[in-house]
Amino acid sequence: MARTVKPEEFAARRGEILQAARRLVFTKGYEQMSIQDVLDYVKISSGAFHHYFDSRQALLEAIIDHIRQESEKPLLPIFHDPHLSAIEKLQGFFDTLDRLRSANKADIIQLLRVWYTDDNAVVRLKVDEAVLAQRAPLLNAIVQQGIQERSFSLSYPKKAGEVILSLLQGMSNTHARLLLSLEHESDEQPIIDEIISTHAAYMEAIERLLGAPDHSLYRADISMVDTWVQAIRKSKNPA
């Protein structure tokens, strides 16, 4: 007679496998990760693994969905706060993402070294698609609120969320490249200046897209960037 597994036990074990696979993706890269790596990490059999996931592809889809759900939770209170203006919500959106990244600097720096390799190209694409599907409607709702408040004025409001996310992705990619270059350059100041100017340029582009007032969105300053420089230094020379 087959053993009956309680739903909470099933969810807990599935979550354990999922977390192990996610860590392997973030350290080895998806293309280098095998199911056997997951089995060895969690210490389970192939049969046990396939009780929770039909295939490596199903595991990848679960990882992407887990990332999507995690990234959504801290953002929803901002979008649904009736007391915030559209500009305050948009800035709150950016602030929350910055705060989450700042709280996990060491892990993010470690991840960046693997994330932009070819071994994670598929994962990056799928994460980008999931983020776009999740966040574009939320940003579009903010844009509609801003139009009603007369703080935004644009020709294609239904496309605004998609365009904003595309800009943010471009900025994120550039910042990642610049941060990683700090590991190989002795003169940090030009890189720090480039990070600051990149952030300012993208924020200005978003303001112009929305027809928002100049400097209505925050620009990164040297103190903010310096915390990342210090984190990069620490990761190169751990105590």
Query: Approximately what portion of the residues adopt beta-strand conformation?
Result: under 5%
The residue-averaged pLDDT reads 89
Radius of gyration: 21 Å
| CATH class label of the largest domain | Mainly Alpha
User: What is the count of β-strands?
Assistant: 0
The largest sheet is: none
Structural class: mainly alpha
| Percent helix range | over 70%
Name the assembly state: single chain
**CATH topology value of the largest domain:** Tetracycline Repressor, domain 2
Number of domains: 2
Per CATH, the architecture of the largest domain is: Orthogonal Bundle
Distance between the first and last residues' Cα: 55 Å
Low-confidence stretches: none
The number of helical runs is 11
Judging from the principal axes of the Cα atoms, what is the shape?
globular
Key terms for this structure?
single chain; 239 residues; mainly alpha; Arc Repressor Mutant, subunit A; Tetracycline Repressor, domain 2; globular; DNA binding; Homeodomain-like_sf; transcription regulation; DNA-binding
Quick synopsis:
The protein is mostly helical. It contains 11 helices and no strands.
Give the secondary structure arrangement, pairings included:
Layout: H1 7-27, H2 35-42, H3 46-52, H4 56-72, H5 76-79, H6 86-103, H7 105-115, H8 121-148, H9 160-181, H10 189-210, H11 222-236
Helix pairs in contact: 1-2, 1-4, 4-8, 6-8, 7-11, 8-9, 9-10, 10-11
Descriptive account of the structure:
By secondary structure, the chain is mainly α. The protein is built from eleven helices and no strands. It has helices at residues 7-27, 35-42, 46-52, 56-72, 76-79, 86-103, 105-115, 121-148, 160-181, 189-210, 222-236. It is globular, with a radius of gyration of 21 Å.
